[in-house]
Amino acid sequence: MKLRVLGCSGGIGGNLRTTSFLLDHDVLIDAGTGVSELSLAELCAIDHIFVTHSHLDHIACIPMLLDSVWTLRQQPITIYAIGETLEILKQHIFNWKIWPDFSEIPSAQHPSMLYQSIELGKTVVLNGRNITAIPANHVVPAVGYHLDSGAASLVFSGDTTTNNALWKVVNKIDNLRYLIIESAFSNSEKDLAVLSKHLCPSMLSMELAKFKREAEVFITHLKPGELEQTMQEIKESVRDIRPQMLLNNQEFEF
Q1: Angle 155-208-229 (CA atoms, 0-180°, nearest 5)?
Q2: If we measure between CA atoms, which residue out of 137, 225, 216 comes closest to residue 186?
């Protein structure tokens, strides 16, 4: 399996793009503004989109992707998410007011988009690739994802704050190679991190103290204008693991 970072920022501007990862050539993990970097041919190859939660920075390109490729594809794109997230997409995005309902285009019998509900801990298998929703703790219903090729694994926390349930799952993954976890705010904005259920460096340090596996750790969802400050605070707070900043176009093979 190969994961390519299309976007990993908590905002936009310059080369910053919001959260989206391309798994191999046909699966998206979230679909923020990073999806816009793909060519039309690459967009047409997307068959599956796994959504962590309903916030705009993680779903922004799903409507435009569908609008761009539906006439060029023979099969619908499947949207995977927990039931609460799918309901939000149905009610507030694909409702003919914000965007057309592509589950009815060109017809309900032959849609361009399918919804597939997933459950925590239940694995979706796509051509030997195991994708499992894992716990997240956010202001809306949310999950992270465990991606397992059989040989090795990558975990993406999604947007989360302090989350003991996550570590119970992660610490059981014997073949874990990479952990991607967020730190959306600097320490000066800890109150906002708590209110919005994100992490800041001091909170991240306490979370990573619960991490019992040996794996490379990468930080995502950093806010524009605070990249260097937040990473410096992480460096000062997290002594043993030495997390690295996640970068656009970075690739992970596992």
Answers
A1: 100
A2: 225
